[in-house]
């Protein structure tokens, strides 16, 4: 047994966890300030006419990874809230005991928060100092590193979780088997990141064609330009995957609800392709014919999606149960028992569903800061959607388990009554 003096000596050598946490926060703040200072000085060193063009290119390369980082942070918050309540998310998503906790998710997002802005700062610094080759190497090496980490077969960086993610993505892309809850849950999240995939496609296209840190991509009709047919194809792909999942569910279950859900995802297709037609038709034709069609299809999709979120995904049918679930849990009591939460969630969901047209429409994507903001808001909308969607699924599982127990309880009650009756006769 250690003496008090030895314990004090060891405590003096090894700092406390609170001290280490403060030290890490201080280092993080110093790093963040340094990145902002170097990046700002690098941008100000450029000429005014080149600055906006260059920032748009930087946005295209790093916007996808920054938004993915935000999504990982928020997913960690989701898991933390679930862990504080009685919502069994591990059972819902069919996770084993080695699944990542919110702490491990936050650890991953912390490293992503450090690596991605550091690469972006290096890109700005090298380009502003005339070293174009080193600048071009920054996003290329970052994308290669991310891809290698995801597909690495070695038992590092949470191999089982990476394998589960890749396997689920494969099942989403090719829904040839029965659709599980994790399959369509992740597919729904991917629909909110369609703009991220579109920018990712354009970034990889430029890297393949060696257009990084150049302005060769500015021609609208170039292979990686804003008129490329690949843009609407990538935008619509997550919605088509979700559409085919619904059709597969109807084949397996024969439930008509899945057909109405498939119809919801099909309404996204005309919004995307009608918007892309602006670059391929005469301006008068667009103004007089295609633009009204695009606006109509946008309204239909936004309102249909909003209704489905409220009535189906969250089980607030007809707004008759806005302020409570049919079977509330601890999570409901913690967050959803207040009226203002419901008003906020329903109102913000409606507004952000309507802004969907901006972030997915080809002819509205030139203001990259606005598009980035709206895409980030869509990710926040999906973040709050997850709380209600997961708890609704947990309520269904709880009701199913209770319904299975009720017949057993009824049989036991009858047996007890018979025993009591027999004893009375005797």
From TrEMBL:
It holds the Pfam family EXS. Keywords: Membrane, Transmembrane, Transmembrane helix. Residues 222-421 form the EXS domain. GO terms for cellular component: cis-Golgi network membrane. The chain crosses the membrane at residues 21-40, 60-82, 108-128, 140-160. It is found in: Membrane. GO terms for biological process: phosphate ion transport. It is a multi-pass membrane protein. Its main location: membrane. This is PREDICTED: SPX and EXS domain-containing. The lineage of its organism: Eukaryota, Viridiplantae, Streptophyta, Embryophyta, Tracheophyta.
């Amino acid at each position: 047994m250690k003496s008090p003096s030895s314990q004090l000596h060891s405590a003096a050598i090894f700092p406390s966890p609170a001290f280490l946490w403060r030290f890490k926060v201080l280092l993080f703040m110093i790093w963040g300030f340094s990145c902002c200072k170097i990046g700002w000085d690098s941008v100000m060193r450029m000429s005014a006419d080149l600055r906006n063009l260059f920032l748009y290119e930087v946005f295209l390369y790093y916007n996808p990874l920054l938004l993915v980082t935000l999504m990982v942070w928020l997913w960690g918050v989701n898991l933390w809230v679930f862990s504080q309540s009685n919502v069994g998310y591990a059972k819902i998503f069919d996770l084993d005991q080695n699944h990542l906790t919110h702490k491990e998710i936050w650890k991953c997002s912390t490293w992503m928060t450090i690596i991605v802005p550091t690469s972006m700062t290096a890109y700005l610094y090298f380009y502003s100092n005339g070293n174009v080759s080193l600048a071009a190497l920054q996003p290329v090496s970052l994308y290669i590193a991310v891809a290698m980490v995801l597909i690495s077969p070695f038992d590092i960086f949470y191999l089982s979780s990476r394998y589960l993610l890749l396997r689920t993505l494969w099942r989403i892309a090719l829904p040839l088997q029965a659709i599980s809850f994790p399959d369509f849950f992740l597919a729904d999240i991917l629909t909110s990141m369609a703009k991220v995939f579109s920018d990712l496609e354009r970034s990889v296209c430029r890297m393949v064609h060696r257009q990084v840190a150049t302005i060769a991509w500015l021609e609208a009709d170039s292979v990686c330009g804003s008129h490329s047919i690949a843009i609407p194809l990538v935008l619509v792909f997550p919605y088509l995957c979700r559409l085919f999942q619904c059709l597969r569910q109807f084949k397996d279950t024969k439930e008509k609800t899945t057909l109405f859900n498939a119809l919801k995802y099909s309404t996204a297709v005309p919004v995307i392709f009608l918007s892309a037609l602006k670059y391929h038709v005469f301006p008068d034709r667009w103004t007089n014919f295609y633009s009204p069609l695009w606006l109509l299809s946008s309204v239909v999709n936004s309102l249909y999606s909003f209704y489905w979120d409220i009535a189906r995904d969250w089980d607030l049918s007809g707004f008759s149960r806005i302020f409570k679930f049919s079977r509330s849990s601890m999570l409901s009591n913690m967050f959803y028992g207040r009226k203002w939460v419901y008003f906020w969630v329903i109102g913000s969901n409606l507004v952000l569903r309507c802004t969907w047209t901006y972030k997915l429409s080809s002819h509205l994507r030139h203001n990259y800061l606005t598009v980035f903001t709206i895409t980030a808001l869509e990710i926040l909308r999906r973040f709050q959607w997850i709380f209600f969607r997961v708890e609704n699924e947990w309520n269904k599982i709880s009701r199913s388990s209770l319904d299975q127990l009720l017949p057993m309880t009824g049989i036991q009650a009858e047996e007890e009554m018979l025993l009591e009756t027999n004893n009375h006769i005797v």
